[in-house]
Amino acid sequence: MPNGSLLRDVVEFIVDCEHKTAPAALPDSYFAYSVGTRNLKAGRIDLGSAKQVDAATYEAWTRRGQPQCGDLILAREAPVGQVGYVDGRARLCLGQRTVLIRPDPSRADPRFLHYLLLSPPVQQWMQDRAAGSTVPHLNVADVRLLELGTLPALPEQWAIREVLSALDDKIESNGRLVNAAQKLAGAVWSATTNRPRSASVATKTTIGDLADEGALYFSDGYREQLSNVVDAGRREGGQAATFSSVVVAWSSVTRMPSLKVAPASTSATSSWPLNRRQRSWAASSSL
Predict the structure, then answer these.
(1) Where are the alpha helices (DSSP H) in the chain?
(2) 224 and 120 in one domain?
Protein backbone atom coordinates (compact mmCIF):
# COMPACT_ATOMS: atom_id res chain seq x y z
CA MET A 1 0.00 0.00 0.00
CA PRO A 2 1.42 3.43 -0.88
CA ASN A 3 2.54 5.79 1.85
CA GLY A 4 -0.17 8.03 3.23
CA SER A 5 -2.26 8.45 6.35
CA LEU A 6 -2.21 6.14 9.34
CA LEU A 7 -5.41 5.51 11.24
CA ARG A 8 -4.12 7.47 14.25
CA ASP A 9 -3.79 10.55 12.01
CA VAL A 10 -7.50 10.74 11.14
CA VAL A 11 -9.22 9.87 14.42
CA GLU A 12 -9.85 11.63 17.73
CA PHE A 13 -9.10 8.52 19.76
CA ILE A 14 -8.92 4.72 19.73
CA VAL A 15 -10.14 3.05 22.93
CA ASP A 16 -9.52 -0.55 23.90
CA CYS A 17 -12.17 -2.75 25.47
CA GLU A 18 -12.36 -4.07 29.03
CA HIS A 19 -10.42 -7.33 29.15
CA LYS A 20 -13.19 -9.28 30.81
CA THR A 21 -16.65 -10.49 29.89
CA ALA A 22 -19.56 -8.21 30.64
CA PRO A 23 -22.22 -9.94 32.76
CA ALA A 24 -25.61 -10.42 31.14
CA ALA A 25 -28.47 -8.36 32.54
CA LEU A 26 -31.47 -9.86 34.26
CA PRO A 27 -34.65 -9.76 32.12
CA ASP A 28 -36.07 -6.75 33.96
CA SER A 29 -32.87 -4.67 33.88
CA TYR A 30 -31.93 -4.41 30.19
CA PHE A 31 -30.18 -1.10 29.48
CA ALA A 32 -27.60 -1.48 26.69
CA TYR A 33 -25.91 -3.97 24.36
CA SER A 34 -22.41 -5.40 24.67
CA VAL A 35 -20.96 -5.63 21.16
CA GLY A 36 -18.30 -8.31 20.77
CA THR A 37 -16.56 -9.78 17.75
CA ARG A 38 -19.41 -12.19 17.06
CA ASN A 39 -21.81 -9.28 16.70
CA LEU A 40 -19.80 -7.63 13.89
CA LYS A 41 -20.92 -9.17 10.62
CA ALA A 42 -20.52 -7.98 7.02
CA GLY A 43 -19.76 -4.42 8.10
CA ARG A 44 -22.77 -4.21 10.42
CA ILE A 45 -23.51 -4.47 14.12
CA ASP A 46 -25.93 -7.32 14.73
CA LEU A 47 -27.85 -6.35 17.85
CA GLY A 48 -30.06 -9.41 17.51
CA SER A 49 -27.18 -11.59 18.67
CA ALA A 50 -25.66 -9.09 21.12
CA LYS A 51 -25.69 -9.55 24.89
CA GLN A 52 -27.86 -7.15 26.87
CA VAL A 53 -26.35 -5.56 29.97
CA ASP A 54 -27.71 -3.45 32.82
CA ALA A 55 -26.99 0.22 33.57
CA ALA A 56 -24.24 -0.48 36.10
CA THR A 57 -22.34 -2.70 33.66
CA TYR A 58 -22.78 -0.13 30.90
CA GLU A 59 -21.28 2.61 33.08
CA ALA A 60 -18.33 0.43 34.09
CA TRP A 61 -17.62 -0.75 30.54
CA THR A 62 -17.76 2.75 29.00
CA ARG A 63 -15.48 4.59 31.43
CA ARG A 64 -12.92 5.12 28.67
CA GLY A 65 -15.50 6.28 26.15
CA GLN A 66 -19.17 5.84 25.37
CA PRO A 67 -19.90 4.81 21.77
CA GLN A 68 -21.86 7.48 19.93
CA CYS A 69 -23.28 7.96 16.45
CA GLY A 70 -20.49 7.98 13.89
CA ASP A 71 -18.08 5.85 15.93
CA LEU A 72 -16.67 2.58 14.61
CA ILE A 73 -16.18 -0.72 16.45
CA LEU A 74 -13.32 -2.86 15.13
CA ALA A 75 -12.66 -6.51 15.95
CA ARG A 76 -8.96 -7.06 16.56
CA GLU A 77 -9.29 -10.80 17.08
CA ALA A 78 -11.62 -13.72 16.24
CA PRO A 79 -11.89 -12.68 13.46
CA VAL A 80 -9.54 -9.79 12.77
CA GLY A 81 -10.88 -6.86 10.77
CA GLN A 82 -14.67 -6.86 11.11
CA VAL A 83 -15.94 -3.27 11.47
CA GLY A 84 -19.34 -1.98 12.53
CA TYR A 85 -20.75 1.55 12.25
CA VAL A 86 -22.50 2.97 15.31
CA ASP A 87 -25.76 4.55 14.15
CA GLY A 88 -26.76 5.87 17.58
CA ARG A 89 -30.08 4.02 17.76
CA ALA A 90 -29.07 1.96 20.82
CA ARG A 91 -26.73 2.27 23.78
CA LEU A 92 -23.60 0.17 23.23
CA CYS A 93 -20.51 -0.87 25.14
CA LEU A 94 -17.49 -2.81 23.93
CA GLY A 95 -17.28 -6.57 24.22
CA GLN A 96 -13.96 -8.37 24.45
CA ARG A 97 -11.34 -8.12 21.67
CA THR A 98 -12.80 -4.95 20.15
CA VAL A 99 -11.72 -1.30 19.99
CA LEU A 100 -13.74 1.89 19.71
CA ILE A 101 -12.65 4.32 16.98
CA ARG A 102 -13.90 7.91 16.86
CA PRO A 103 -13.09 9.51 13.49
CA ASP A 104 -12.02 13.14 13.30
CA PRO A 105 -14.67 14.62 10.95
CA SER A 106 -12.25 17.33 9.84
CA ARG A 107 -9.93 14.62 8.42
CA ALA A 108 -12.15 11.63 7.59
CA ASP A 109 -15.87 11.25 7.11
CA PRO A 110 -17.00 8.49 9.55
CA ARG A 111 -18.95 6.53 6.94
CA PHE A 112 -16.17 6.85 4.39
CA LEU A 113 -13.65 5.60 6.95
CA HIS A 114 -15.98 2.68 7.73
CA TYR A 115 -15.99 1.63 4.08
CA LEU A 116 -12.26 2.22 3.78
CA LEU A 117 -11.52 -0.09 6.70
CA LEU A 118 -13.63 -2.77 4.98
CA SER A 119 -11.79 -2.37 1.66
CA PRO A 120 -9.61 -5.28 0.44
CA PRO A 121 -6.24 -3.47 0.76
CA VAL A 122 -6.86 -2.42 4.37
CA GLN A 123 -8.32 -5.80 5.28
CA GLN A 124 -5.25 -7.47 3.77
CA TRP A 125 -2.96 -5.22 5.80
CA MET A 126 -4.72 -6.28 8.99
CA GLN A 127 -4.61 -9.97 8.07
CA ASP A 128 -0.88 -9.74 7.26
CA ARG A 129 -0.10 -7.93 10.51
CA ALA A 130 -2.09 -10.45 12.56
CA ALA A 131 -0.75 -13.55 10.80
CA GLY A 132 2.42 -13.93 12.91
CA SER A 133 0.53 -14.81 16.08
CA THR A 134 -0.55 -18.25 17.26
CA VAL A 135 -4.05 -16.80 17.46
CA PRO A 136 -4.35 -14.08 14.81
CA HIS A 137 -4.94 -10.76 16.51
CA LEU A 138 -4.04 -7.09 16.41
CA ASN A 139 -2.71 -5.10 19.33
CA VAL A 140 -4.11 -1.62 19.90
CA ALA A 141 -0.73 -0.28 18.76
CA ASP A 142 -1.18 -2.15 15.47
CA VAL A 143 -4.60 -0.58 15.01
CA ARG A 144 -3.19 2.91 15.51
CA LEU A 145 -0.54 2.24 12.85
CA LEU A 146 -3.03 0.85 10.33
CA GLU A 147 -2.08 2.18 6.89
CA LEU A 148 -4.90 3.88 4.99
CA GLY A 149 -3.06 5.20 1.97
CA THR A 150 -3.72 8.69 0.63
CA LEU A 151 -7.21 9.87 1.60
CA PRO A 152 -9.20 11.97 -0.89
CA ALA A 153 -10.42 15.43 0.05
CA LEU A 154 -13.54 15.61 2.21
CA PRO A 155 -15.95 16.53 -0.66
CA GLU A 156 -14.82 13.41 -2.52
CA GLN A 157 -15.19 11.35 0.63
CA TRP A 158 -18.75 12.59 1.00
CA ALA A 159 -19.58 11.71 -2.60
CA ILE A 160 -18.17 8.20 -2.18
CA ARG A 161 -20.07 7.82 1.09
CA GLU A 162 -23.37 8.73 -0.57
CA VAL A 163 -22.98 6.15 -3.33
CA LEU A 164 -21.87 3.32 -1.06
CA SER A 165 -24.48 4.13 1.59
CA ALA A 166 -27.26 3.96 -1.00
CA LEU A 167 -26.03 0.53 -2.11
CA ASP A 168 -25.70 -0.56 1.51
CA ASP A 169 -29.27 0.50 2.26
CA LYS A 170 -30.50 -1.45 -0.76
CA ILE A 171 -28.64 -4.57 0.35
CA GLU A 172 -30.12 -4.27 3.83
CA SER A 173 -33.61 -3.76 2.40
CA ASN A 174 -33.23 -6.83 0.18
CA GLY A 175 -32.04 -8.80 3.20
CA ARG A 176 -35.21 -7.89 5.08
CA LEU A 177 -37.30 -8.99 2.09
CA VAL A 178 -35.48 -12.32 1.95
CA ASN A 179 -36.03 -12.87 5.67
CA ALA A 180 -39.72 -12.07 5.32
CA ALA A 181 -40.04 -14.45 2.36
CA GLN A 182 -38.30 -17.23 4.29
CA LYS A 183 -40.65 -16.76 7.25
CA LEU A 184 -43.65 -16.84 4.90
CA ALA A 185 -42.37 -19.99 3.21
CA GLY A 186 -41.85 -21.60 6.60
CA ALA A 187 -45.38 -20.69 7.67
CA VAL A 188 -46.81 -22.12 4.43
CA TRP A 189 -44.83 -25.35 4.85
CA SER A 190 -45.86 -25.61 8.51
CA ALA A 191 -49.51 -25.14 7.61
CA THR A 192 -49.16 -27.82 4.92
CA THR A 193 -47.40 -30.46 6.99
CA ASN A 194 -49.27 -29.91 10.26
CA ARG A 195 -52.77 -30.13 8.86
CA PRO A 196 -55.65 -31.74 10.81
CA ARG A 197 -56.55 -35.36 9.98
CA SER A 198 -59.87 -34.98 11.75
CA ALA A 199 -61.79 -32.27 13.48
CA SER A 200 -60.07 -32.99 16.80
CA VAL A 201 -56.65 -34.47 15.94
CA ALA A 202 -53.71 -32.69 14.28
CA THR A 203 -50.97 -34.95 12.90
CA LYS A 204 -47.49 -33.87 11.75
CA THR A 205 -46.88 -34.94 8.17
CA THR A 206 -43.54 -35.97 6.68
CA ILE A 207 -42.35 -35.59 3.08
CA GLY A 208 -42.87 -39.33 2.71
CA ASP A 209 -46.51 -39.00 3.77
CA LEU A 210 -47.07 -36.24 1.20
CA ALA A 211 -45.48 -38.41 -1.49
CA ASP A 212 -47.66 -41.40 -0.55
CA GLU A 213 -50.74 -39.21 -0.79
CA GLY A 214 -49.69 -37.80 -4.14
CA ALA A 215 -49.14 -34.32 -2.74
CA LEU A 216 -45.47 -34.63 -3.70
CA TYR A 217 -44.27 -35.98 -7.02
CA PHE A 218 -40.52 -36.55 -7.42
CA SER A 219 -38.65 -36.30 -10.69
CA ASP A 220 -35.20 -35.22 -11.87
CA GLY A 221 -36.64 -31.83 -12.83
CA TYR A 222 -35.04 -32.03 -16.27
CA ARG A 223 -35.92 -35.11 -18.30
CA GLU A 224 -39.46 -35.51 -16.99
CA GLN A 225 -42.25 -34.73 -19.44
CA LEU A 226 -44.01 -31.62 -18.18
CA SER A 227 -47.28 -33.11 -19.44
CA ASN A 228 -46.79 -36.04 -17.04
CA VAL A 229 -46.24 -33.60 -14.19
CA VAL A 230 -49.40 -31.70 -15.03
CA ASP A 231 -51.34 -34.98 -15.30
CA ALA A 232 -50.08 -35.95 -11.85
CA GLY A 233 -51.38 -32.67 -10.49
CA ARG A 234 -54.75 -33.11 -12.18
CA ARG A 235 -55.17 -36.59 -10.75
CA GLU A 236 -54.92 -35.06 -7.30
CA GLY A 237 -57.41 -32.33 -8.13
CA GLY A 238 -54.85 -29.53 -8.00
CA GLN A 239 -52.03 -27.78 -9.83
CA ALA A 240 -48.50 -29.04 -10.30
CA ALA A 241 -45.49 -26.88 -9.45
CA THR A 242 -41.85 -27.70 -10.11
CA PHE A 243 -39.27 -26.57 -7.57
CA SER A 244 -35.81 -27.75 -8.65
CA SER A 245 -35.90 -31.55 -8.47
CA VAL A 246 -39.17 -31.85 -6.53
CA VAL A 247 -42.53 -31.46 -8.23
CA VAL A 248 -45.31 -30.49 -5.87
CA ALA A 249 -48.90 -31.26 -6.83
CA TRP A 250 -51.11 -29.16 -4.56
CA SER A 251 -54.28 -31.12 -3.86
CA SER A 252 -57.29 -30.85 -1.63
CA VAL A 253 -55.50 -32.73 1.16
CA THR A 254 -53.06 -29.84 1.67
CA ARG A 255 -55.85 -27.31 2.22
CA MET A 256 -53.53 -24.67 0.84
CA PRO A 257 -54.08 -21.78 -1.60
CA SER A 258 -53.02 -22.61 -5.13
CA LEU A 259 -49.49 -21.77 -6.21
CA LYS A 260 -48.87 -21.94 -9.95
CA VAL A 261 -45.35 -22.06 -11.33
CA ALA A 262 -44.69 -22.67 -15.01
CA PRO A 263 -41.83 -22.05 -17.46
CA ALA A 264 -42.19 -18.70 -19.22
CA SER A 265 -43.19 -18.80 -22.90
CA THR A 266 -44.09 -22.50 -22.76
CA SER A 267 -47.37 -24.33 -22.75
CA ALA A 268 -48.45 -26.80 -20.08
CA THR A 269 -47.62 -29.66 -22.43
CA SER A 270 -44.06 -28.60 -23.28
CA SER A 271 -41.40 -31.27 -23.00
CA TRP A 272 -38.09 -31.26 -21.17
CA PRO A 273 -35.29 -30.38 -21.57
CA LEU A 274 -36.03 -26.71 -22.14
CA ASN A 275 -33.75 -24.37 -24.02
CA ARG A 276 -32.09 -21.37 -22.36
CA ARG A 277 -34.91 -18.99 -23.16
CA GLN A 278 -37.52 -21.39 -21.81
CA ARG A 279 -35.63 -21.97 -18.62
CA SER A 280 -36.53 -18.50 -17.33
CA TRP A 281 -39.31 -19.02 -14.85
CA ALA A 282 -42.52 -17.07 -14.36
CA ALA A 283 -44.36 -17.47 -11.08
CA SER A 284 -47.72 -16.27 -9.91
CA SER A 285 -49.53 -16.88 -6.65
CA SER A 286 -53.23 -16.65 -5.88
CA LEU A 287 -52.78 -16.44 -2.13
Answers:
(1) 55-61, 110-118, 120-130, 140-144, 154-193, 207-213, 226-235
(2) no
